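R.M. (postdoc): so does anyone remember the format we settled on? I'll just put the structure tokens first.
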């Protein structure tokens, strides 16, 4: 076996490791963000999808968006 075959094998191993690390980072970020998003959605006074929001809810959401 010459040196180029070993280099190709090491490169493939590094690429696989980077892929696994990247996917793990995305999964960890999802684990942190998902409960926060669900909690915010459950605490919201916004109506469920078949219902339309009231004018007061729209005004409150608009002022909150401007404040952010």
């Amino acid at each position: 076996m010459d040196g180029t075959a070993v280099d190709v094998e090491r490169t493939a191993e590094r690429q696989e490791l980077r892929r696994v690390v990247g996917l793990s980072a995305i999964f960890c970020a999802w684990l942190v963000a998902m409960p926060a998003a669900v909690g915010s959605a459950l605490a919201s006074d916004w109506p469920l999808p078949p219902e339309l929001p009231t004018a007061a809810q729209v005004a409150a959401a608009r002022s909150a968006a401007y404040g952010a």
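R.M.: ...and that's the designed sequence above, right after the tokens. Also worth knowing: The longest helix spans residues 3-43. Residues 3-67 form one domain.
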